[in-house]
Amino acid sequence: MQLYHRDAIEGAVGIDQAALSAVEAGFAALGRGEVVQPPILSMAIEEANGEVDVKTAHIRGAERFAIKVSPGFFDNPRLGLPSLNGLMLVLSARTGLVEAVLFDEGYLTQVRTALAGAIAAKHLSRENSRRVAVLGAGEQAERQVQALRLVRDLDTLDVWARRRPGAEAYADRLRAEGLRVNVHDDVAGACAAADIIVTATPSRTPLLHARDLPTGVHVTAMGSDSPEKRELDASVLTRADAFVCDTRAQSEGNGELKAFEGGEVPFKVHELGRVVAEGQRLRLTDDTLTVCDLTGTGVQDTAIANFALSRLLSG
């Protein structure tokens, strides 16, 4: 059994095309029905504004599977600590023996989540998308842009966050990456000219409404991954020409389909794995409005853990 710490894992795995392909292959396997994936085990720790999720999946035929433990404690930045932490256990799919512990402190979750956003944009946004609006200014908001640049030639970023100083610091970091960055005081202003909108917040109330959406925009919602969270108003979902999620069950329980409170959903729900596996083209024209709700799946964790361990063993 091998134990790897974050420094070694970061040295082996980054947000690049190879990692993107690995996570995309995991989505495709899910879409083809080749994945055993149980529901998320999730526990809230309300007094500390925290939560812990446990996710896992097995891709049939794969040598290994992963079990990921992911704490999120959202007051940690005030203490000078990261909001995400955790580790991944990699086990043999033949014997069940633990082959490796990836003590990544949440790094691989950040990477695979960012890559999932890029995969959604690759399949759903306009190919000539160059301007992205980001709601949120945390680590994932930054990684989302980094991953998007693998699939779209971005040049302009508009950012809104609840705390203006946080948005300004975020803007400075992204300007250093060669992007033009505008900081906005309201969501509508940030989204007005966007080709792609990414929501990456722990919000418990909707931030984005249909009135904020320009024609033909693609929206990827990343933040709602538990029953208490919401980023999109129901009007965003009903206005969309195509609504996609990673899994419908997770979107209904943890994601944006909670807007319908268990009632009938008044539109067709697509799943990203099938979009990838079948090459579905849901964007029919430049004016098509697409929305993707990503709650985070165990197959993403198994895909990135297998990729990471392969890199570590070969390095």
TrEMBL record:
Gene3D superfamilies xrefs: NAD(P)-binding Rossmann-like Domain, ornithine cyclodeaminase, domain 1
Matching InterPro entries: NAD(P)-bd_dom_sf (IPR036291), ODC_Mu_crystall (IPR003462), ODC_N (IPR023401)
PANTHER family: KETIMINE REDUCTASE MU-CRYSTALLIN
Name of the protein described by the UniProt record: Cyclodeaminase
Organism the protein comes from: Halomonas rhizosphaerae
